[in-house]
Structure prediction request, 89 residues.
Amino acid sequence: MQRFYFHIFAGDLGLIPDTDGSELSDLSAAHQRAVRIMYETMSSVHDPGDCRGWRVKVADAGGNSVLTVLYRSGIVNPAARRSIMSCLG
Prediction:
């Protein structure tokens, strides 16, 4: 297991750091977690269009950036979102 940190860069709101991290099996699992974070945060804002330019930067235990997930622009179709979330577990 490896520890990954999921830092959200939220436009004008700035950085929302992940200070705890999560133990995951590999980079693929970290990517799935980052996509889940993206969709969950998009669903919690009033206008998902406000998330344009946001990103989740995934770092390893050494603080090295290992991948970045960019937020989708526009509104996510609810059926598509449910399908994606079910695939991610």
